[in-house]
Every structure is written in C-alpha cells, then in structure tokens.
Amino acid sequence: xxxxxxKLSTAQIEQYNTxxxxxxxxxxxxxxxxxxxxxxxxxxxxKKVLPALHPHIEDKFLRRWCSQKRLLDLVEPLVGPNIVLWxxxxxxxxxxTGPRTPWHQDAxxxxxxxxxxxxxxxxxxxxxxxxxxxxxxxxxxxxxxYRHQRRLDVEHVRTGLNQEIIExxxxxxxxxxxxxxxxxxxxxxxxxxxxxxxxESDRARNGLVLxxxxxxxxxxxxxxxxxxxxxxxxxxxxYMGDD
Length: 243
Hints:
- The chain has 243 residues and is α+β, with helices and mostly antiparallel strands.
- Helix content is 21%, strand content 26%.
- The strands form three sheets. A six-stranded antiparallel beta sheet has the order 1-9-4-11-2-12.
C-alpha cells in the first residue's frame, strides 16, 4: 500500500543539500502509475500528439497530474511553499539505440533568475545501469558552473544538448547510477553534474522529469504553471490557467 506522507525528513533534506540529489524511493505504486504511463506512452512516445518537452502547456490532464499534492509536498522543503511547475519532460530512451546523455549541468542551459529548481525524475518503468540510468556526481552542485564545450554531433541532435563539460573538469570516477523501480523517483539540484550512458539493453527506458521552482524566481515563457501558493515575482512571471 502506498504511503500517505510524502514529505522529506530532516535527514533527507540534509542529504539533498550535501550531495545535490536524493533517491527518494517509492512515490507511486505501479497500479497508481499505470494511467499516466499509458497516457504518456500513447500520446508522446507512440503517436507524438504531444511534444516530449513541455507537454503540460497543451495538456490539462498532465498539468494537473504533475501538480498533485504528493509531488508538491515532496519538493516544498527544497523550493518553498510557493511552487511553480515549469518543465515536464518525457525521456524515452529506445532499446539498443538510445543515445548517451553528455555530462552537463541543467543550470548551464536555463534562463532564470535566480536559478533554483528541484527536479523529480520519476521512473515509469524500471531504470537500470544497463538501460541508461541517469548518473550524478555528488556534491558538484555547490560550486561554479563548470566550463562546457559546444557539441555538434549525433548525440547533440538526439538529446537536444549541444554542450558538454570539458574533459578533465570533473572526476567521473565518483559518478553514481540512479537506478529506480517503477514508481520510484529521485530528486536532483539544478546545478549538479549529471549524464547517462547509452541504452545497450533490450528494454526501453521511460521516465518523466518534473521541474519545480519557487515563484520568487523569474522566468519568461509560456510554460509556467502556479501549482501552489502565490506569485512572488512582482508580476514578472506570467502563468497559464486551467482552461
């Protein structure tokens, strides 16, 4: 039976602040997740009716599903009580051909001031090292944005990431695989160094990433949804409605 309290403990918050990530464990039972998993696989992966990035802009069901209480309770200790859902991203890594994700920091790409985001990586199906689990380097969220170099290759085209941290800037020997069972999730900081190996297994890797920021952070765009609380951006942010 699913647990009823999804708030982080003091120890979990301390671990997140120290390491820049947290493997939370079960957030949804597999049967609870089946509806949204089937919905995403049909509309995004198979039929491509919705885009893999920001499908919540067009889709009210996803917008509301990603703003449910257990998700917001989970990130509130990390971003505060006034929470904006600003990214929904479906990651589908195909068997055998799913590409490597280059080492990078999300904050390198984002236009936001200040950059404060907690990202929930939710496993729609089992995620293992063999099918390309995300890898993180603990503690790399506390320093600077590392130097990145531009990439123009097949991996860039397939992943949408045109930059990678310069070789030698980070110690890859400290990397940790984030392996998850269906319905489990991890949470990671906007500045942590992460990447993923290619999917060399016979099984797809399907995951949903939900990104939340405090409403005091300022960001232009039509993807912002005020999921909890009030706006603290002095009117800078423009939020979509439920219609």
